[in-house]
Design a protein that fits this description.
The chain is of the alpha/beta class. The chain has a single domain, classed as Rossmann fold, CATH 3.40.50.1820. Helix content is about 40%, strand content about 20%. It has helices at about 20, 40-50, 65-80, 85-100, 115-120, 165-175, 200-205, 210-230; strands at about 1-5, 10-15, 25-35, 55-60, 105-110, 130-135, 150-155, 180-185. It has an 8-stranded mixed sheet, sandwiched between helices. The longest helix has 19 residues, at about 210-230. It is globular. It holds the Pfam family DLH.
Length: about 240
């Protein structure tokens, strides 16, 4: 689907709950922010899974304006700065969901890797709950002031984010933000993402691979947390 933004439209993938499973609308919304790979089949599968759990789920393509090669550098630059068109795109995705007649108006945000960083920064920007997976902590931690409730998941073997879970726990506690931060001891980066082909091979070489047990535990935690803060029964 197309998502209206300030300079036109960007692409997105929308998944809608089935009434037979999730009951009649309205449903809470969730914006899913993909990792650095882009709006892959894995990202779409995750979006579909949120819809199956009863959420109106939308994954915007953060590389809509030129693809991964042309956009990845600028998107990461905006993430580091905590501002820019990428954040405007996420706000547009949130606004689109919240305005729909089949949405309750309460919208969460979920992000993986690069998307996890966006989910953390965006936690104080109009969303009702945030679920970052192995997201880079913002350099300016004041962006967490006024953050919505946060459920975060990290891998202890993720050496690029060593100490991030404990630091985020302290920062959220100091601000009185409701949270659930967990570091899984036996896994590394990307433990909740399932890739195939060359990307999967490269990730495994780098020590970043899917772990079913940790991924499913994180999924249960996220659904329970969202049920509490977005008003949807955990499935």
């Amino acid at each position: 689907m197309d998502i209206p933004v300030a300079d036109g439209t960007i692409r997105g993938y929308l998944a809608t709950p089935q009434r037979e499973v999730s009951g009649e609308p309205p449903w809470p919304g969730v914006v899913i922010v993909h990792d650095a790979v882009g709006l892959s089949q894995d990202a779409k599968n995750i979006t579909d899974r949120f819809a199956t759990a009863g959420y109106l789920a939308l994954s915007p393509d953060m590389y809509s304006r030129g693809g991964l090669v042309r956009c990845v550098k600028s998107v990461f630059k905006e993430l580091a700065a905590g501002k820019g068109r990428a954040f405007d795109d996420l706000d547009a995705a949130r606004s689109l969901l919240a305005a729909r007649s089949d949405c309750t108006g309460r919208v969460g945000i979920v992000g993986f890797c690069m998307g996890g960083g966006f989910a953390l920064v965006a936690a104080s920007r109009g969303f009702d709950a945030s679920a970052p997976y192995y997201g880079q902590l913002p350099k300016d931690l004041s962006v967490l002031d006024g953050a919505c409730p946060v459920v975060a998941s990290f891998g202890k073997k993720d050496f690029s984010l060593r100490g991030a879970a404990a630091k985020l726990e302290r920062e959220l506690s100091a601000r009185g933000v409701p949270h659930d931060v967990k570091e899984y001891p036996g896994v590394g980066h990307s433990f909740a993402n399932q890739f195939h082909g060359p990307v999967n091979v490269l990730l495994k070489i780098a020590g970043m691979s899917y772990d079913r047990e940790a991924s499913e535990d994180a999924w249960r935690r996220v659904l329970a947390f969202f049920a509490e803060h977005l008003g949807r029964e955990a499935a």
